Structure formats: structure tokens, C-alpha cells
Write the C-alpha cells for this entry.
Amino acid sequence: EVQLVQSGAEVKKPGESLKISCKGFGYRFTSYWIGWVRQMPGKGLEWMGIIFPDDSDTRYSPSFQGQVTISADKSISTAYLQWSSLKASDAAMYYCARLPLGPYHFDLWGQGALVTVSS
Amino acid sequence: QSALTQPASVSGSPGQSITISCAGTSSDVGGFDYVSWYQQHPGKTPKLMIYDVSNRPSGVSNRFSGSKSGNTASLTISGLQAEDEADYYCSSYTTSHTGVFGGGTKLTVL
């Protein structure tokens, strides 16, 4: 089955680091971009950034540039989103999603990973 | 880049048609035919409904259609059904080679 499977919910303290993952199944992982989308509680979708796993070409929305790092390991069909020092405002649901070559739209979504940041 | 502008809410009765607008600029919506629309039911993962302004993915009802004029894109849902009640988001490719979402529209089926 073609799917993206994300790592589980995380509970962290402010200042801690975090790396969440997104693994692709059932398709050629290196032929599609992978993107990350934030959804804060009760709020809308926010486009964070994307990566092309084949060559690690990465693009960030200006709002997220320098705030997070997107990476990928094509050998294990997995993309990552990481923070070096979490803030309370990073608490949100984070979705990974696949983009066909373009990349212009998200055609396949992961189940989401809830990140809670609280002291 | 700023989020695309959508109405916060729209409503319609079963069987009616509704249209959700998505206003951008020449740097996003107006500059490319790469507008997409997503449906999200409460507590669920977003689902692609329209891509490249007016194309429907396989499995999406033909009651959903998309269009664009200038810097504004639109999603039209005809023959409204109770199951269409959800949040809808537009998205566009941008001149920065990234993307941007709209603020989202809550559709209520009366």
C-alpha cells in the first residue's frame, strides 16, 4: 500500500531538541518531494518546507527558514523534521506529505505527529 | 509570503452549490496554474480535492470543481451533501519556489 507513516506523538520541554520522521512505503521514494505542514491547535495549515530525497534539494518557507531543519535518508525512505531548541509555540500537529514532481501539490499525507511542548 | 485569503466560513443547504474564493497575488495564485484545494474533516488528515487549478484526483467526486481568474482561485461544490461539511484550504506555488496555504474556510451544510 502506498502510504507515509510518521513517528509517534512527542512530549518535550522548552529548550529540548526533537527529530520526527516520515517513512514512505509502496512507491519510489526518490521520485517525489516530501513536505512538512504545521497545524497549530484550532488553526489552519502552514506550509513549512520540502525536500527532494534523491539529491536533498531543500526549500523552506520564509516563516520557517532557520527555525527547523528538514532532511532525508533515501536509503531508508525516510524524511525528517528537526528542532534544536523547542519553544512552547512549536506545539502543533505536524504532517508530512508527498509532492509529485513540480512540486506543486500534496497528493499523499502522513497520519500526523502531535508535538507537545510544556515545562 | 502572506497566507492566501479565504472567507472564514460559508454555508449552504443540501443540494445547493457553494463557492469558496482564494485570493492571492501575482507572485502566487496569479503567476502559476498551480492552485490546489484540500478538505479536512475535524480530527482528520487533509485530503487533496483539486490540483493544478481544476484537476480532480482519481476518486474525488465530480461535484467538486476549481477555477481561477487573475489572482483569485475558486472551489465550487455542487449538490451539497452533509458529508461535505469540513474545512477547506487552498494552496498555491509561489515565485519563491515554495508554497503557501490559505487561512481555511469552514463549510457548514445547513
